[in-house]
Structure formats: C-alpha cells, structure tokens
Amino acid sequence: MSLTITSPAFRDGEVIPIRHTRDGENLSPPLAWRDAPPETRSYVLIVEDPDAPSGTFRHWVLYNIPAGETGLPEGTSAQVLRGAGECVNGFGKTRYDGPQPPKGHGPHHYHFRLAALDAPRLDIPASTRAEDVWAKVQPHIIAEAEVVGVYER
C-alpha cells in the first residue's frame, strides 16, 4: 500500500463545498490519510492552485504534523494541532485561506498535497513563504499523496 489522502467533504476531482472557500466560512476541509510508511516521523500539507492567472498560488501550509495523526478535522490550524506550524500563504496570511479564483476564470483545481517525512520536526520560521517550505522539505519526503478539489466563481 502507499500513502493516500481523502476528504469527507469532497471526492477527488469534485467540487469543494462553499464553506471551505473564501466565499463561505473559509474553513479548512476535513482530511484523512492512511498507509503511511512505517518510517514516517512527521507530515507536511500544502494546498496549491496551479490554475491561478499569475502561476501556482499557495493557500496553506501546515507542517510538523505529528506522525501519529491520521487526518485533520474541519477548521484545523496550528493552534488546534499542538506542535504544528503554518507559514505565509499567497494572501500573506499564516493560516488556511480557501479557494477564491477570479470570477469568470473557469474551474480551478486545488491540490491538497500531503508528504510523509523522515524528520520528526522542521525548524521553519512562521514568516517563511509556503513555496519555500515545500522546497525545504524535499530532502525529507518519503511518500506523497494528494486529493484534488475543484472550485469556480
């Protein structure tokens, strides 16, 4: 088996409910994962929109997720998940900010990418940009999985 991630809020390739967007309540969706490699010491999650007009837009990074976790409840933040950290997203905030594509731009695909890491903890300042976190974790990735949600305005 290999690492997999799903969301009870939407199926892979289907529409993200409005409550998980900036047009709604802006709550991170619940996520669940399984079949992590036994050597997993922590996880990192990044949410990206590669369809953004100016290139890939990062909506959230949550890192130092403990290895014992098998998912995240709706509305998770670093304050809720003890020991985890969040970095600066494309909106300039250190939190989850859901989909909000330009009106009339068509459907955007939001990749919820989870990586299992061989490191128990990464020392990353909260002021770090989301894309820089993903670059920093590359040498520690032992497995990856993603679930993709779609949203348009």
Describe the structure.
- With 153 residues, this protein is mainly beta.
- The chain has one domain: Phosphatidylethanolamine-binding Protein.
- A hairpin with a 7-residue loop joins strand 4 and strand 5.
- The longest helix has 8 residues.
- The mean pLDDT is 96.
Brief descriptors of the model:
153 residues; mainly beta; Phosphatidylethanolamine-binding Protein; 6-stranded mixed β-sheet; 3-stranded antiparallel β-sheet; 1 helix; 9 strands; globular; YbhB_YbcL/LppC-like; Raf kinase inhibitor-like protein, YbhB/YbcL family
What is the fold's blueprint, element by element?
Layout: E1 4-6, E2 14-15, E3 31-34, E4 42-49, E5 57-66, E6 71-72, E7 85-86, E8 108-117, H1 130-137, E9 141-151
Parallel strand pairs: 2-9
Antiparallel strand pairs: 1-3, 3-6, 4-5, 4-8, 5-7, 8-9
Keywords: Kinase, Transferase
GO molecular function: kinase activity
InterPro entries: PEBP, PEBP-like_sf, YbhB_YbcL/LppC-like
